Amino acid sequence: MIRKIIQIDTEKCNGCGLCAKACHEGAIGMVDGKAKLLRDDYCDGLGDCLPACPVNAISFAVREAAAYDEAAVLAKKEKGAQLQGSQLQQWPVQIRLVPVEAPFFQGADLLVAADCTAYAYAEFHKEFIRGRVTLVGCPKLDSVDYAEKLTEILRNNEIRSVTVVRMEVPCCGGMENAVKRALHDSGKFLPWQVVTISTDGKILGRD
Question: What is the DSSP code string of 81-101?
Fold first, then answer.
């Protein structure tokens, strides 16, 4: 059918994610650091996302599009409420893969997590990923020095804070040490904390 629906100018989009948060239907998501209309049938055409965009990258278009499916949107919301939903705001998440100067880093609260923590701690999305830009890795398996890339990320972006989540196992000390070195070498004085998770999924401490 021909109807009014939003369109996103990826050239203008700065990857802030505010439109995705403003979209009550879940029609907009962040893909490779840019906002994207994920499904036509989730967009009601009312444009709640338009005033949320600081760079005017969103506008209306009249084109062939699937009809707005309110039942599907409600079902998605109900499922999300039951599962509490993914809180991930950006992609990629691997430290090795993420660009040093991605738009989503600007003004971000940064989460640097050992990849096992998300499996061990049941409330990981809700408590740690929510509201943060997420970077994950395993210092034991990755044969790279995380500190160098993390230093560049901190040095080249306006990061507001850093949260490190690690397991209690000794190899996770490499993740914590990499962040400490990056904070020192970047010359930035930022609020930061380290949260340690036990192998049976409990929080052992916040330093």
Answer: HHH------SS--BTTTS-TT
Q: What is the pLDDT of residues 108-127, one digit of tens each?
A: 999 999 999 999 998 899 88
**How are beta strands 58-64 and 2-8 bridged, if at all?**
antiparallel
Task: Judge whether 164 and 176 are in contact, CB under 8 Å.
Answer: yes
Q: Which pTM was predicted? A: 0.62
Alpha-carbon gap, residue 31 to 42, rounded angstroms: 17
Phi, psi of 163 (to 5 degrees): -120, 125
Judged by DSSP in three states, 27 sits in coil
- Side-chain-side CA neighbours of residue 158 (13 Å): 4
Spell out the domains of the chain, with CATH numbers in brackets. 2-83 (3.30.70.20), 103-206 (3.40.50)
Question: pLDDT tens digit string along 191-206?
Answer: 999 999 999 999 998 8
Contacts of 137 (CB under 8 A, 6+ apart): 94, 95, 96, 112, 114, 115, 146, 175
- Which DSSP state fits 76? H
Residue corresponding to tokens 């893969």: 97
Quick one: which of 118, 6, 14, 133 has its CA closest to 63?
6
188 backbone dihedrals φ, ψ, rounded to 5°: -95, 140
